[in-house]
Amino acid sequence: MKIVVLDGHTLNSGDLSWETLEALGTCTVYPRTPAAETVARAEGAEIVLTNKTILGQAEIERLAALRYIGVLATGYNVVDVEAATERGITVTNVPAYGTDSVVQMVFAHLMNLTLHVGQHAQAVAEGRWSRSEDFCFWDYPLIELSDMTMGIVGLGRIGQAVARAASAFGMRVLAYDPLLGSGSAGDPPEGVEPVDLDRLFRESDVVTLHCPLTPDTERLVDERRLRQMKPTAYLINTGRGPLVDEAALAEALNANRLAGAGVDVLSTEPPPADNPLIGAKNCHITPHIAWATQAARRRLLDTAVKNIKAFLAGNPQNVVNR
Ligand code: NAI
């Protein structure tokens, strides 16, 4: 059995082991694969794993031996699932491996926006405390979470876990999800007030995005939504970059119409140097790492291997073919 991992570097740059995967066949792991080399590298493989390397119709049509594509992520938009289905190729993903890690990143950004831990620590390292006249100093307003209202857009696995953490901090929690109250998603978790998007954007002190990227949610946060927000409010995006109109967000921040933003995802990754959010006022950007704690990556790899074993046993799991 020939197994090819097209872009293993971000999942495992050396702190995890490929052994369980290697036990399943002849396994080649490429750190990254340029688009032009995808077909040559995957040629003859029955099993191909990809994280962000595109397997479109053109590639799939040329890979005659291919029987299985394992996506090393939850989002599987890098694979043309329809083309794979037509060829009888099973496509799987890895859901839910990173929920706790994403929640942690949401609160890392929120804590940073409300207390500026990194910037204050930097000021101390530069000698500001030693030169201070007083026993303490702060450069930014310090804000207590329990005084804040959080608005959650998308109350799925991550949104619900964020809601629980926000409640534990004593925050008021509002949420919008089209499935809320429809019966299929059931009632909102305790303490969560379901509202429409207008109320959510107007009343929240922090809005956090946890809906998937779809044609409906693309640029969900545009100039109109940003103008609905309080000038003291924050936006946190750990969902997907294109959920936000980045130029409109940069403008709102630079014009003090919004107090700050914490962003883990951008519309193009890696971003071009002139992305308008890079350098925007009080905009803190992390390089798409909410998913990447070692614990979450280990769970991801474990599930990816279990997915292959289940497929080989004739009982595939986490299949995304429609
Ligand atoms: P999920 O599928 O459990 O929840 C998504 C929720 O969004 C569902 O309840 C759905 O009804 C809701 N939704 C759908 N359309 C909506 C709309 N128009 N407005 C508001 N809500 C809508 O997904 P999960 O596991 O909670 O993940 C959410 C997103 O987080 C993923 O789609 C992914 O893009 C992102 N993510 C980011 C990571 C990172 O490293 N930054 C890591 C993992 C996920």
CATH superfamily of the largest domain: NAD(P)-binding Rossmann-like Domain
| Chain-averaged pLDDT | 96
First and last CA, distance:
26 Å
Q: What fraction strand?
A: 5-15%
CATH architecture title of the largest domain: 3-Layer(aba) Sandwich
Task: Give a description of the structure.
With 322 residues, this protein is of the alpha/beta class. The chain folds into two domains: 115 residues, NAD(P)-binding Rossmann-like Domain (Rossmann fold); 187 residues, 3-Layer(aba) Sandwich (Rossmann fold), CATH 3.40.50.720. Helix content is 31%, strand content 15%. The protein contains eleven helices and twelve strands. The protein has a seven-stranded parallel beta sheet with strand order 8-7-6-9-10-11-12, with helices on both faces. It has a five-stranded parallel beta sheet with strand order 2-1-3-4-5. Strand 1, helix 1 and strand 2 form a beta-alpha-beta unit. Helix 5 crosses helix 7. The longest helix is centred in the last third of the chain and has 19 residues. The chain is globular. The two termini are 26 Å apart. The model has no long low-confidence stretch (mean pLDDT 96). 1,4-dihydronicotinamide adenine dinucleotide binds next to helix 7.
